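Example S7 (structure tokens).
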């Protein structure tokens, strides 16, 4: 089933991963997390792939976790989403994200693991974890304050309001903002520029830039998951999710 919701192919040394669950605003369910993880692992292992590009179909990046799937998480052991985040954190090849329309929850936190992020002017971003009675994930409670500063990260996390691509750029989440009609071609041009670079030099440079936070980020991903799962079982979180799903 996840195959119909996530498409992938390799073109000119770029692995394109495209979320395609448009009727659900590309919300990510458990099966999709499994497929995303497999795609990243395949892209890392494929010597023909030099760059990985993540984008959404239908002028939407992703509305985040499928809230209905929260009830299907394992009682013990890591969730499918958590396993995906572990893999995402370890990707050695350059990661590009193309963000159009909604980018909510993990649709924002996964951007913190990407090397280049380009957003359309119609992008609307949000980190509504606290609003749902849970905490952020993906190591974002470490990475976002490091990029944006403590006060800016506090505003985004603790209030959970929508924010603009301009604010995302100001906070170091986004590299550049483009008109919706231009973003597809621009992102592809950037991907091809990376393809022309020496692959080993790219990966080593990425590794060196991330080295000082690599272990700390991995630890934070695990710590967040423990708190996330505990809060998820709370009555406050269950009520908030029910209200959101109405």
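Recovered sequence:
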């Amino acid at each position: 089933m996840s195959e119909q919701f996530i498409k992938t192919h390799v073109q000119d040394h770029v692995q394109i991963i495209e979320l395609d669950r448009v009727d659900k605003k590309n919300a990510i369910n458990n099966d999709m997390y499994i497929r995303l993880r497999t795609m990243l692992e395949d892209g890392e292992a494929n010597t023909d792939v030099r760059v990985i590009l993540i984008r959404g179909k239908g002028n939407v990046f992703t509305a985040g976790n499928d809230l209905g799937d929260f009830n299907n998480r394992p009682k013990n052991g890591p969730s499918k989403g958590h396993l995906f985040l572990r893999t995402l954190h370890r990707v050695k090849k350059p990661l590009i994200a193309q963000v159009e329309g909604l980018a909510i929850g993990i649709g924002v936190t996964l951007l913190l693991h990407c090397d280049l992020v380009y957003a359309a002017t119609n992008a609307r971003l949000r980190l509504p974890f606290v609003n749902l009675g849970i905490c952020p994930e993906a190591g974002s409670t470490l990475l976002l304050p490091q990029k944006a500063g403590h006060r800016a990260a506090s505003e985004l996390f603790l209030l959970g309001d929508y924010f603009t691509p301009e604010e995302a750029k100001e906070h170091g989440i986004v590299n550049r903002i483009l008109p919706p009609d231009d973003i597809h071609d621009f992102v592809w041009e950037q991907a091809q520029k990376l393809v022309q670079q020496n692959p080993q030099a790219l990966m080593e440079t990425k590794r060196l830039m991330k080295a000082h936070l690599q272990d700390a980020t991995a630890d934070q991903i695990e710590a967040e998951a423990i708190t996330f799962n505990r809060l998820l079982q709370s009555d406050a979180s269950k009520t908030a999710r029910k209200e959101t799903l109405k």
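Notes on this example. The two ends are 25 Å apart (CA to CA).
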